[in-house]
């Protein structure tokens, strides 16, 4: 992969984490998580091997599902409370759905079955990024 493209993708990873960590608004937190997910997909698939493509596809499907659950949870919370503030998570279905989505994003049990398969399809550096840096924003 071109070093310029790799540096842009790494900067997008850092930017996504910073946006997510610094946001007080549900939509901005979701945007940061999506930026982080979309930046790691080309890094996962940089080796033109079927295992790398499979790992990138599995990662994308799981992360897209978890992101949609986070967005749905924040919409339900905003509907009931009238605000998109992260600290106002008060209605009962919203925190439960958010917990499930964050468990999916982090690879926590019982939603961890995708993580070993993604790790097996990548090289050591990419697996290190997925195991450490990708866990910071959620």
From TrEMBL:
Keywords: Electron transport, Membrane, Mitochondrion, Mitochondrion inner membrane, NAD, Respiratory chain, Translocase, Transmembrane, Transmembrane helix, Transport, Ubiquinone. It comes from Podarcis lilfordi (Lilford's wall lizard). The chain crosses the membrane at residues 57-76, 96-115. This is NADH-ubiquinone oxidoreductase chain 2. The keyword Membrane applies. It is an enzyme of class 7 (translocase). It catalyses: a ubiquinone + NADH + 5 H(+)(in) = a ubiquinol + NAD(+) + 4 H(+)(out). GO terms for molecular function: NADH dehydrogenase (ubiquinone) activity. One of its GO terms (biological process) is mitochondrial electron transport, NADH to ubiquinone. GO terms for cellular component: mitochondrial inner membrane. The keyword Transmembrane applies. It holds the Pfam family Proton_antipo_M. It is found in: Mitochondrion inner membrane. Its EC number is 7.1.1.2. Belongs to the complex I subunit 2 family. Residues 23-136 form the NADH:quinone oxidoreductase/Mrp antiporter transmembrane domain.
């Amino acid at each position: 992969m071109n070093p310029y493209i790799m540096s842009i993708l790494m900067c997008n990873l850092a930017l996504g984490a910073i946006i997510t960590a610094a946001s007080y608004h549900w939509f901005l937190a979701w945007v940061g998580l999506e930026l982080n997910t979309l930046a790691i997909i080309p890094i996962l698939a940089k080796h033109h091997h079927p295992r790398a493509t499979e790992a990138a596809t599995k990662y994308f499907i799981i992360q897209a599902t978890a992101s949609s659950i986070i967005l749905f949870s924040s919409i339900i919370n905003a509907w009931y409370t009238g605000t998109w503030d992260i600290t106002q998570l008060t209605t009962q279905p919203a925190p439960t759905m958010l917990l499930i989505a964050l468990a999916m994003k982090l690879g926590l049990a019982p939603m961890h079955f995708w993580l070993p398969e993604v790790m097996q399809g990548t090289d050591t550096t990419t697996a290190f990024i997925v195991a450490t840096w990708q866990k910071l924003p959620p």
